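User: Design a sequence. Structure:
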């Protein structure tokens, strides 16, 4: 009975768990290591999902059996017959297209295809929209960008453009509940062409074994036959927050807070948003083409973003990084402030203090005890962790105080920790739409 086990003499419990959340798994021996390490690497690099390699203590010092060669990924090859059939089908469709809309999701970033999709839109000006899972994939400043698609919570004119589209090109999108306001609106399947990592669905017909890079190349070639600029850009009211500079001593609200942040963000910023009011407020910001956005609206593990900020800043320490996180979420992983401070990172952290789990209150139990958190003096917490590289902290309750904090924090050389006091049930509009949908579904017996 060894430590880090269940004390039952069984040593594969955790590799069994890992099977559920990894694309490939293995347990190494001296005899299988050459083949198995490459097999798992091939799978995780091809599918862009995690892999699991178990290295038993008894194997660590054994000599590998076989000849060791440099690792080389075998690039996936498209099925030529499927690629030909897809090309012919898309060619027939695109010949008569007049009202296209392109949606781009997170898989375009995961598979390294942001430059290709941006080049396509720059050249041919297709009306396009991003999603919560995939914010930052598209250039939100280009003229053909028509907003953020979020199901029934989208701008009405964006929904009208989608409903009137004769083709919806869906690139690397997964239509989950949190990004469609609980499936309150979805593209019409009769007009949907859905590009996935290794398949394309054209009006429900699946073409298999075609890598996304190849299917995007075919799409680009076929669209080039259409006259550039011939696609009419629908007029929409951008759902992006409007920047304001007005400041008062009236208590700040979600609405005014995000307006101030819209003025504060710069092109090139890395924006990291915790799943809660922080996420649903920040996704409405209009970010620049060199900016990046990190969020987690599918799994939604609260507390994720503090350690994610540490990881992101370890990779790019010179990049201006803004973290938006709620008080409830921060309590789960607040110790990662110590890692950020120890390594001399200088994030700008906005701690949204709204007295508990507001996102959960919006769904169920507005006044229930389980949605409360213990009162915390957040102004002291960063200093408790910051024995070196002393942080600077602020506590703001109105836009005048927020303006002062933003001026001081604009070019950080040490951690800037800004506690923002907001109303307990003050919800960003996007969150209200999603939480109302979830609450309605939860009430169905």
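Assistant: Done.
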């Amino acid at each position: 009975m060894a430590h880090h086990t269940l004390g039952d003499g069984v040593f594969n419990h955790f590799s069994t768990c890992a099977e559920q959340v990894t694309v490939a798994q293995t347990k190494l021996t001296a005899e299988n290591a050459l083949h198995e390490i490459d097999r798992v690497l091939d799978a995780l690099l091809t599918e862009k999902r995690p892999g699991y390699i178990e290295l038993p203590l008894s194997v660590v010092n054994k000599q590998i059996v076989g000849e060791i060669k440099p690792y080389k990924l075998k690039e996936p090859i498209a099925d030529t017959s499927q690629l030909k059939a897809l090309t012919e089908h898309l060619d027939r469709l695109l010949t008569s297209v007049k009202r296209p809309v392109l949606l781009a999701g997170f898989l375009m970033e995961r598979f390294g295809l942001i430059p290709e999709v941006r080049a396509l839109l720059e050249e041919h000006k297709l009306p396009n929209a991003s999603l919560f899972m995939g914010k930052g994939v598209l250039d939100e400043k280009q003229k053909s960008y028509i907003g953020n698609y979020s199901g029934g919570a989208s701008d009405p004119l964006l929904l009208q453009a989608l409903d009137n589209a004769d083709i919806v090109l869906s690139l690397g999108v997964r239509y989950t509940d949190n990004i469609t306001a609980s499936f309150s609106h979805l593209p019409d399947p009769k007009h949907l062409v859905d590009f996935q990592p290794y398949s394309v669905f054209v009006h429900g017909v699946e073409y298999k074994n075609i890598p996304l890079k190849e299917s995007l190349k075919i799409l680009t070639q076929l669209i080039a036959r259409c006259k550039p600029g011939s696609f009419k850009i629908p007029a929409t009211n951008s759902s992006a927050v409007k920047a304001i500079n007005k400041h008062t001593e009236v208590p700040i609200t979600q609405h005014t807070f995000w307006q101030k942040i819209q003025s504060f963000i710069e092109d090139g910023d890395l924006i990291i948003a915790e799943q809660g009011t922080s996420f649903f407020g920040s996704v409405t910001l209009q970010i620049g083409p060199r900016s990046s956005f990190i969020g987690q609206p599918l799994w939604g593990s609260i507390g994720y973003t503090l350690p994610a900020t540490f990881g992101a800043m370890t990779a790019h320490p010179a990049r201006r990084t803004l973290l938006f996180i709620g008080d409830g979420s921060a309590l789960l992983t607040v110790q990662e402030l110590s890692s950020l401070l120890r390594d001399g990172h200088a994030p700008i952290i906005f701690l949204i203090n709204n007295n508990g789990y507001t996102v959960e209150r919006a769904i169920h139990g507005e006044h229930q005890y389980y949605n409360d958190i213990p009162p915390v003096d957040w102004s002291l917490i960063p200093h408790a962790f910051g024995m070196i590289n002393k942080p600077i902290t602020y506590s703001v309750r109105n836009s005048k105080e927020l303006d002062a904090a933003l001026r001081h924090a604009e070019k950080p050389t040490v951690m800037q920790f800004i506690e923002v006091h907001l109303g307990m049930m003050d919800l960003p509009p996007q969150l209200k739409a999603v939480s109302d949908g979830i609450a309605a579904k939860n009430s169905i017996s």
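The CA atoms of residues 78 and 210 lie 5 Å apart. The chain is about 35% helix and 15% strand.
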